[in-house]
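User: I'm preparing a small set of examples for a lab meeting where we compare how different chains pack in three dimensions. I only have the primary sequence for this one, and I'd like the structure in token form so I can line it up with the others. Please keep the answer compact; I'll paste it straight into my notes.
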Amino acid sequence: MLTSERKALIRRVLEEEGRLVAKPFSQRLGVSEDTIRRDLRELARDGVLQRVHGGALPASPALADFPTRARAGSAAKRALGRAAARLIKPGQIVFIDGGTTNVQLARHLPRELKARIVTHSPTIAVELAGHSGIEVQLIGGRLFSHSVVAVGAEAAEAISRIRVDSFFLGATGLHVELGVTTGDAEEAAIKRLIARQAAETILLATRDKIGAASPYAILPLGEIATLVTEAGVPDDMLGPFRAAGVTILTS
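Assistant: Understood. Below is the structure token output for the 251-residue chain.
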């Protein structure tokens, strides 16, 4: 079998089964495990998959740039934003993470809502600038352009002085074994810090992020209180998260 044929098969297995284990796959094809691991390394460099111990998982499609992500799956993101907005109650102090789905959350907050929104995303802050009932606290720092959020020591110091009722987290991957992941180490660290400052963490994730993985861990499943995702996601995909104690809210 040619290298291109093996790689095409690897892609198909990941799409159909959601994971690939290198050793049995190499035995199935009659090639060495080293050959398969080399294929996985090359596909990982191309952004096709995420390597994990013993094999690979699908790479999250949410690693594209911000404008591309903003155009993708807009109807689903609007539905998630609308559903998540109902979770914010008057008088609460809430931290809204950056990301294209959380922009929809900001857009769907009721006009009569009176609350304080903390964010390190200029995009979220601008969305809320005209909302008369919401006090916006914008965290500064070095701008991470992929997600359009502030990161770095300045942002971390400001976040460490804040306590919030809820953190609406954005991520690029959600996996039963690996938990919540994203594509940048520094951004992952900032997200972990925000979660530590929150009474609860609520994750917004479109269907394509469920079962996918990115290189950097944010939180284990046990630290997620609620998952807001799309209606129609098969129960066999959501069942393991419910078993881990995560409340599932569909849009």
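A couple of notes for your slides: The two ends are 44 Å apart (CA to CA). The chain has a mean pLDDT of 92.

User: Perfect, thanks.
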